[in-house]
Design a protein that fits this description.
alpha/beta; 9 strands; 41% helix; 20% strand
Amino acid sequence: MIDILMSTYHGQEFLRPQVDSILSQDHRDIRLIVRDDGSTDATNTILNEYAERDDRITVITDDLGNLGAFASFMRLVEVSDAPYFMFADQDDVWLPEKISKMLAKMTELTDRHGSDNAIVVFSDLSIADEDLNLVDRSLWHYQQFDPNISGDWKHLLAQNVVLGCAMIANAGAREISLPYRLPDMPHDQWVAVNTAKYGQIAFISEPTILYRQHEQNHSGANSFRLKYALSRLPNFVRTIGEYRQAVKVFGGVTTMELILNKVRLNMRRFRKRDDF
């Protein structure tokens, strides 16, 4: 059994194709657990409609109100009790063999390291526009990411290359990721860094998802160019503050080390060629 964890918010426009792509996966032993984070559009109506038709869907309700995307996803991690879990955004489209391919890699790592070890597997993504026209086959190419840095938790703290919508984690990763102690850190980065530090993390190089880009994206993909890098500079003061908080929680690293890692990794992105 795999829990697919989806947090929704005003997702009516693209929600149906995403849910359809999850329910039609070639791996059928899933449970789609959805938490809506306070939508006032037709999102809840759509979710309840699907839940009535397919008993693999559970829509949870609570009195926590609007938590924001990161905390809402981590609330779903708390609810999950399956051997494996995956995050799902409300607006992408999963390729038909996404789950089975990622589960195969997870099984390989479990056989090697044991089921008690925390394990995360992630994949590349294909970037699509609002109408699902292909923008770039590889997010790693588009953003000049190097997935190999995922083996070093300090590098992942400085630059996250593990996107939640393209990852699978086991119960061990869930255990070490709770409680959620850095609410300003994206949920996927939190799980990935903890797993890289205390367990095993690996990737498959092929895309498993159409990562839809549109005006309402909570977060998205931007082609890594000088203009984009310069546009991020005003956020650097906030980033330093986040690094300081991360150092308190994770230990074993300094704020200056994270800053230098960030600079080095971004310089490496400028030098990268079409490796993928």
